[in-house]
Every structure is written in C-alpha cells, then in structure tokens.
Write a structure and sequence with these properties.
By secondary structure, this protein is of the alpha+beta class. 40% of the residues lie in helices and 18% in strands. Strands 1, 2, 3, 4 and 5 form a five-stranded antiparallel sheet that branches. It is globular. The protein starts with 7 loop residues before the first helix and ends in a 5-residue tail after the last helix.
Length: 122
C-alpha cells in the first residue's frame, strides 16, 4: 500500500514547527533536511543508532551522512515521491533524540566536521 503525500492542510500545520527547529526545505525536491553538530563522533553515532531504531519502528528510513561529529539528514518518502506523515513523525523523533546538539543552518554547502576545523583532531 502506498503512503499518501502530506495534504496542503497537513503541510500548513506540521511543517512550520519543524522549520522552527532547523529543518529546511531541500531545493528541487519535496524533502526536508537538517544538519546537527555533536560534541564528538561517539555522540553523533549514538544519535544515529537511536534514530535508526526509531526509523525501523516506522519502517521509514532517512537519507543521511555522517562525518565525525556531523549528521546530515534528508527526509522524504520515496513511496509517494515527497513528504508524508512518516517524515513529520521521524523528524520530530530525531529532534528529541538529538538533545542539545547544535543545529547547522544555511544548508547550501557541505558542512565541515570538527576534525577539519580543529587542527590535530581526527
């Protein structure tokens, strides 16, 4: 069974609160993206492990990248070709799981990881 895309009413209700937490639209796609900066690799990996369990429970999996302390997440539902309620649920859960991690804004380019910004680290 196909997952339905978010209705216009659902978008108007669900997306603004996510945007306030740092999720941003992905240009050219019906998707949202957020980048977190954790204190270190272990903290980033712990977040990804907890998020993976949440994703499994929803049977909905993120597109994500990890570079040392950075976790870059894009959410979209391939089944419906855009955003669905699954993305909203997973984004909200990831926000809770990320705790006090810093949020990177202006997702126009690759975000440098801590090892690239602190000489001798990595």
């Amino acid at each position: 069974m196909s997952t339905p895309p978010l209705s216009e009413d659902a978008r108007a209700t669900a997306l603004p609160p996510l945007m306030e937490t740092g999720w941003q639209p992905v240009p050219g796609r019906d998707a949202i993206r957020k980048i977190w900066r954790f204190k270190g690799f272990s903290e980033a990996w712990g977040f990804m492990s907890r998020a993976a369990l949440a994703a499994e429970r929803l049977n909905h999996h993120p597109e994500w990248l990890n570079a040392f302390n950075i976790v870059d997440v894009t959410l979209t539902t391939h089944d419906c070709g855009g955003l669905s309620d699954l993305d909203v649920k997973l984004a909200s859960r990831m926000d809770k799981l990320a705790g006090a991690a810093a949020v990177e804004h202006g997702h126009t380019s690759r975000t440098a990881c801590l090892c690239e910004t602190r000489p001798g680290q990595g």
